[in-house]
Design goal:
Length: 331
């Protein structure tokens, strides 16, 4: 490790660490079941949450929600398209991607994928969607205009989350191999694979650009890893909460965020030569994924109340009608 920087050492120097970043609002969503990724459409200012058998939509300005905008089957992510008129949903149980109208939730198209479509992202240089088929060990490339799979990229493991740099590179983790994969979006091929030896079961990732060319990775073991994309070398290893599943980067404010299921959100300052933790914000249990409102810099975290796990259950079940979004901002 090049650096392992503790947030406590920065508490006296950082206004954020002094408590100005905090939960400032809660928006009730409702519905039942578990959830996965959240996304935010800056045009319509709506948040979409993959909520098991449905996609939940949240209007940030009105502070209202539709618990089940669209039907899904093991939903993992809902990506807004076409200026917010459409969402693309990955259905992990059905092995499909659907394109849905955001006004009515109606299915506009269904596209078969390889098994276990999980995370997904749209590369702005090609306009194609890259879908992480976790169980198949492939990345399916979808032409959204033609509504068809135009390429399949084999990867030596299980891809999960995804990120892009806006200049033709797509990134994913192989969660079972502790590796970072870099893809040329236009050529639809792997251009580098980096081993992340101290990053166990990597999940969420975010591209950190500008003065840097880095990837921020959420790892098990309460660690976030920052990797130099060009060399694969570790830039920093930073302390985070337990049970992370996502990573965000606010390019305007040069702050990265990693939410953790134990109820902590870690804020990381990327404005200098070395990334440093500037705040650990108390959220709530289960708040392990998030979306960013780029206008305000607020971080939006889905969570719920939980019951008692039954024998054989891996985790406690969310209680019906307690699903909500925590809004973390500066106050």
């Amino acid at each position: 490790m090049i650096a392992f920087l503790m947030s406590a050492a920065l508490a006296a120097a950082s206004p954020a660490a002094a408590g100005t970043i905090q939960v400032v609002d809660t928006i009730k969503v409702g519905g039942s079941g578990g959830w996965d990724y959240a996304t935010f459409d800056a045009t319509t200012r709506k948040m979409y949450i993959a909520h098991g058998t449905a996609i939940s939509a949240v209007d940030l300005d009105a502070k209202t929600a539709t618990a089940a905008l669209a039907v899904a089957d093991g939903a993992h992510i809902a990506l807004p398209l076409d200026g917010g008129k459409t969402i693309m949903i990955t259905n992990g149980k059905a092995n499909t991607v659907t394109l849905n109208d955001t006004a009515s939730g109606a299915v506009l198209a269904t596209i078969a994928t390889d098994t276990g479509p999980d995370g997904a992202i749209i590369d702005p240089t090609t306009g194609h969607a890259f879908v992480m088929a976790n169980h198949a060990g492939t990345i399916d490339v979808i032409d959204l205009q033609g509504k068809t799979v135009i390429g399949k990229i084999a990867v030596p493991g299980k891809p999960e989350g995804a990120a892009v740099d806006g200049n033709g590179r797509v990134f994913t983790h192989l969660e079972d191999k502790n590796e970072l994969v870099i893809i040329d979006a236009k050529a639809m091929k792997i251009i580098a694979t980096w081993d992340m030896k101290d990053c166990d079961s990597p999940s969420g990732l975010a591209y950190v650009g500008g003065a840097h060319d880095w990837i921020l990775s959420a790892c098990d073991g309460k660690i976030a890893r920052v990797t130099d994309i060009k060399t694969g070398q570790e830039v920093a290893a930073l302390p985070i909460g337990d049970g992370p599943d996502f990573a965000l980067y606010d390019a305007d404010r040069k702050i990265g965020y990693i939410p953790a299921g134990e109820g902590k959100l870690t804020a990381i300052d990327f404005s200098g030569a070395t990334p440093v933790v500037i705040a650990t914000i108390a959220t709530q249990k289960g708040a392990r994924t998030a979306a960013l409102d780029p206008k305000t810099g607020d971080v939006l975290l889905p969570t719920a109340d939980f019951g008692t796990p039954q024998p054989g259950m891996k985790r406690a079940p969310p209680l019906p009608d307690t699903f909500r979004v925590l809004v973390v901002g500066t106050k």
